[in-house]
UniProtKB/TrEMBL annotation:
Organism: Hyunsoonleella rubra
Gene3D superfamilies referenced in this protein's UniProt entry, alphabetically: Collagenase (Catalytic Domain)
NCBIfam families, A to Z: Por_Secre_tail
Keywords for the protein's UniProt record, in alphabetical order: Signal
Lineage of origin: Bacteria, Pseudomonadati, Bacteroidota, Flavobacteriia, Flavobacteriales
Claim: Zinc is one of the keywords in the record: no
Pfam family, one: Por_Secre_tail
Keyword Lipid biosynthesis applies: no
Protein name (Swiss-Prot/TrEMBL): M64 family metallopeptidase
Length: 478
């Protein structure tokens, strides 16, 4: 789950910076750092005497964030920590070098100043006054990015997302490797918007300041066919459509967004459905909802019957997780966190028990488009004889399963990602349940399936591990 610090990239720079340990305050603790997304808020432009105010400001950012969807539903997937890094002076630099004509009335009204802060927070970056960044030109002349990484390495190396909170009432922020926000009225919204760039890979839904930032992404595309656009499942729902970008002068651009009023377009709006889905998918990439399970290979000790099997799940609010328990290829239970096995449930020899956990949130519509779906499993191998349980082995596996393109005319690509190297059994079926094709797939090579011989229509594709159905998708044959 954890993001690895890029020490090798910055090795020369880091060697020039002395290690420093700062006070770290926990603002939100949902669970172990290795099983949660760790958001770190770092003070910038706060003097030592102002660090209590920093905690107040950081707490507001954190608290407001988890009032807004999808953070509110997945609040228990996050920890939040605040690192108190003191600066010699308050605020941020205002060079007065903005060249943006739309902001010509803003920049002159702000007094030009240079202040001594730890991370060199600077307005007017790249010629735009509101672009608050830790290097005005991105050249890292002060080794600022290396300084940020050293602070993280020395104080909270388990970080997943970072927001530098700048002690300033002047509106501003930026994305990049590390999000940055001013501390004023819209700070929580700016922090969410910028973190949506840095952690969730979302793109601005206003036309980007720099046209080179217009790229294919979760919420930006050049595709205009509603049957092919990546958010096709959402078309016509919650205001989702295909809306053309315009530049600041009203000139149309060959790029399109899914919504007219999304936080990625204006920070005081909510996230649109497409962005929420992309954010949740990233959460699923980083955190398994299966926090723990018993019995495991550590805790098994002279197992007896009845055998209690239990999951500890990180549940969304409200809970949208589903679970399917399969024993020796047959369904045993659904949507429960624990079961109990008796001697009548087991056969002599090897028994296989698998539980499959999905997130069935209405905020996700990934069943029949190109985005990956996430599947989490635990399998127990139980050796049983007339004398009782002789041995139990357990193994967990997380899968990311995708198929593309969808709709498909000729070749359907299947991809399975996960640490487990076991092959999955795959069946393609008609909607009437007739088996059309059978094959196996591993996460090593993937699979290219020729579907030229299929009639036009909708088909099901089922994925099995340990004789348990772990995922089912639809695809359209054109």
């Amino acid at each position: 789950m954890k993001r690895h610090l890029l020490f090798l990239v910055f090795l020369c720079s880091l060697n020039l910076i002395s290690a420093q340990v700062f006070d770290v305050e926990t603002l939100k603790l949902s669970g172990s750092k290795d099983k949660r997304i760790n958001l770190v808020i770092i003070s910038e432009g706060y003097q030592s005497s102002e660090l209590n105010q920093f905690i107040t400001d950081a707490s507001k950012v954190s608290n407001d964030m988890f009032l807004e969807s999808p953070f509110s539903e997945y609040a228990d997937y996050f920890n939040v920590f605040a690192i108190k890094v003191p600066s010699n002076e308050s605020g941020a630099d205002h060079p007065g070098t903005s060249t943006d004509p739309l902001e010509s009335t803003i920049s002159p009204a702000v007094p030009i100043q240079t202040v001594d802060t730890y991370f060199n927070a600077t307005y007017d970056s790249f010629g735009f006054h509101r672009l608050l960044y830790y290097e005005i030109d991105g050249a890292n002349a002060n080794n600022t990015e290396a300084k940020i990484m050293m602070v993280l390495a020395d104080n909270l190396p388990e970080y997943d997302a970072v927001v530098l909170l700048v002690n300033s009432d002047e509106y501003g922020g930026s994305g990049g490797n590390f999000a940055m926000s001013y501390s004023g009225f819209y700070a929580p919204d700016v922090a969410m918007h910028e973190m949506a760039h840095s952690l969730f890979s979302l793109i601005d839904e206003y036309f980007p300041i720099d046209e080179t930032l217009a790229v294919e992404g979760i919420n930006m595309t050049q595709e205009t066919d509603p049957n092919l656009v990546k958010w096709k499942n959402w078309i016509g729902i919650d205001g989702v459509g295909i809306y053309q970008h315009e530049d600041d002068d009203g000139n149309p651009k060959p790029w399109y967004r899914p919504h007219q009023s999304c936080k990625m377009r204006r920070v005081d709006w909510d996230f649109c459905a497409v962005c929420k889905e992309g954010m949740i998918e990233k959460i699923h990439d980083l955190v398994s909802p299966i926090e723990a399970f018993t019995p495991n290979n550590i805790t098994v000790n002279n197992p007896t019957l009845p055998l209690d099997v239990e999951l500890t799940l990180i549940k969304p609010i409200p809970n949208t997780l589903t679970s399917q328990w399969t024993l020796n290829g047959s369904n045993f239970a659904n949507d429960v966190d624990d079961i109990s096995l008796t001697s009548t449930d087991l056969t002599e020899g090897t028994n296989t028990l698998t539980v499959v956990v999905h997130d069935d949130s209405s905020l996700l519509k990934v069943d029949n488009h190109d985005m990956s779906s996430h599947v989490y499993t635990v399998t127990w191998t139980i050796n049983y004889s007339s004398l009782g349980i002789e041995d139990i082995q357990s193994e967990r596996a997380d899968y990311s399963i995708s198929l593309y393109p969808n709709p498909v005319s000729s070749i359907l690509n299947l991809k399975v990602e996960g640490a487990n190297t076991e092959e999955l059994k795959v069946d393609i079926l008609s909607l009437e349940g007739k088996t059309i094709k059978k094959f196996r797939i591993s996460n090593v090579s993937g699979e290219r399936v020729i579907v030229d011989d299929l009639s036009q229509g909708i088909y099901l594709i089922n994925f099995y591990a340990n004789n348990a159905l772990i995922d089912s998708k639809e695809f359209v044959k054109q």
